[in-house]
Amino acid sequence: MLIDLHKKVIRRVGYLLLFSIFLQIILGAWVRLTGSGMSCPDWPLCYGMIFPTPEKIKSLEIIDYTYFQIFLEWIHRANAAFIIGPIIVIFSAYLLLSNNTNLVYKKYAYALLLFLLVQGGLGGLTVFKSNIPWSVAVHLMFAFLLYLTVLLLILSTYDLSKNSILANRLVKNNIFLIGFLTLVAACAGAFTSKYGASLSCDKWPGCSSSFFPKFDDAFELIHFGHRVIAFMLLIFLCLLFFNIRKYYKIMTFPVKLVILFILVIISLQVTIGALLIHFGIPTWLGIFHQGTGLLLFTSICILYKYIKLKSNKI
Length: 314
Known about the structure:
Blueprint: H1 2-33, H2 54-58, H3 67-97, H4 103-128, H5 133-155, E1 165-167, H6 169-195, H7 218-244, H8 253-279, H9 283-306, E2 307-309
Parallel strand pairs: 1-2
């Protein structure tokens, strides 16, 4: 009973933390797409204030941002500083000090603290480096890794063996590669956006005047590179569906549901990718694109945990 209660605590806090990090990544996309990343030019405060009220902002002589942009960046920071950070510290302390915690949970606790420390440092670095593209992309990558750690911690409290699929190593490696490409595609998208190359290829699926980008145009190359990564992701997803079809009859309902969800999400992602170009990167659609990408990453990770190796041979 004590162990069951311990798992319930981990799940409930884990789900709260997972949602908070999901929200943080969405807020980050919103900040990036509205050009609000430097609306608070100092760190960890904002114009030297804990909370920048409209009255205090108006008293400043030269501000190149609207109050909405400043408040959006402040909310992004506040969610990390006042919600995610404290929850991780308290949650990790609980896992490390509890007598009911096994070694696996403790490893996740150490990973959470490490990623939190790295993310905090990257947040400051991103501001000090004036939101240069590579720092924004790395910041997003570690946000995904923090999200992944919480997700795996939650999944470790469930018995997934009754729904697991005995498959060969090819399938498992295929899923791992898809998860990795999803992460790379998200970071490449953030880099492309921050570099100012979001509309450098203003046609879809081709680039601009021709299908391929001009090799002397860095903006077109960066944008097209993001599309190439997304195309590779789509190819490996098709390969996964082809290889996993033989296991369909023995799959349980939860596994089939995850696979169906992946199909729906990747279809949405392809459609949104085309619509973003057609409509000129509207903010709301860009945020939706980031959110569905994170949902795809989540479902791929869950599917990976459902796969058990049949043998060491491919």
